[in-house]
Specification:
This protein is of the alpha+beta class. Helices cover about 45% and strands about 10% of the residues. β3 (about 135) and β4 form a beta hairpin. α1 packs antiparallel against α2 and α2 runs antiparallel to α3 (about 45-55). The structure holds FE2/S2 (inorganic) cluster.
Length: about 160
């Protein structure tokens, strides 16, 4: 069983697919659109997108699970993505992750009980010159230390 999208969402999907040489080529922007509407991409959304674009559902699953910007479960209001790749690791990025785990009382991949914060460990965010860094939703924060993380968390309250 796949989810039935609203007429408005279907219309916007059609507007996106019209910009591409094939419907299948619109997969990434359509997934961004759907996730923006639903908050996450469940198996139902994956099947619905596959049906609309004429793709095998496994192709949609492959893309959703490959890119870290897609999520298959609900996220907190603030998604904290802490980089653990080489540059950030060399700049002691691990302590940023440990600091947030201790502060929020959750592990990596978990959401606080109030639904406010989700903590994720991610690969390179493409901002190595600011290592260690993290993203909060779509905002980058670099040159982090625990004190700067505290200031960022205060601003989120
Ligand atoms: S290694 Fe962390 S942003 Fe590149």
């Amino acid at each position: 069983m796949s989810r039935e999208f609203t007429a408005d969402l279907k219309k916007r999907i059609e507007e996106i697919t019209a910009r591409y040489p094939s419907r299948q080529a619109a997969l990434l922007p359509v997934l961004h659109l759907v996730q923006g509407e639903t908050g996450f991409l469940s198996a139902e959304e994956e099947r619905a997108v596959a049906s609309i674009l004429g793709l095998p559902p496994i192709k949609v699953r492959e893309v959703v699970t490959f890119y870290t910007m897609f999520t298959r479960k609900p996220l907190g209001r603030f998604h904290l993505q802490v980089c653990s790749n080489l540059s950030c690791s060399l700049a002691a990025g691990e302590r940023i992750l440990r600091h947030l785990q201790a502060k929020l009382g959750i592990g990596v991949g978990e959401t606080t009980p109030d639904g406010k914060y989700t903590l994720t460990e991610v690969e390179c965010l493409g901002a190595c010159e600011q290592a260690p860094c993290m993203m909060v939703n779509f905002d980058y924060h670099g040159n982090l230390d625990p004190e700067k993380v505290e200031r960022i968390m205060e601003e989120l309250k």
